[in-house]
Amino acid sequence: MKKRTLFLKLLMLFLVMTLIVELMGVYLSRIKKPNFWMYHFYTVFEYFTLFYLFKSVLKDKKTLKFSYILLFLLVVVWCVTFVNRDYFNYAVIIGSFNVGVLVFLYLQELLLSDEIINYKRLLPFWVSVGLIVFHLPAIPFFSFWNYMKNKDLLPILHSLIVLMNIIISFGLIWSNKKVEY
To answer: Of 87, 9, 97, 100, which Cα lies nearest the Cα of 52?
Structure first.
């Protein structure tokens, strides 16, 4: 029961903070104020929260070694962005790659367990699907960010964010409330 509570608390914290940051980002953009620093701090919060979210459901903690290395790299690059903002995209790329690794580890454990029989009722499954829908395409998107002449592809990124949140919301509604995660 403790794992389930931690997973749900972390998920709710992540979703509420995401909503607040996105609403503030839209507001700051509309009044023509810079919002880089808000997203800068949110990025490290986001990727650490997602790490602990998956750490709470993964049974084999030994598989997290590579993810720890990616988190360390994320923090290093994140600190560098205080000096040079051009490295911010690299922090997002590393963070999104780490989310991909964590989702893969979770799905691997799920496939090898008896829980796979009722996967549609597992909230962590839907969260994983939602996160992978956004974070895997984000890797090439942010890899080429500095080379884009204009930002015409931003609606695609926004659509992926909306799709990710719809999938997570669907999981919150559809999942079995009595299952331990």
So the answer is: 9
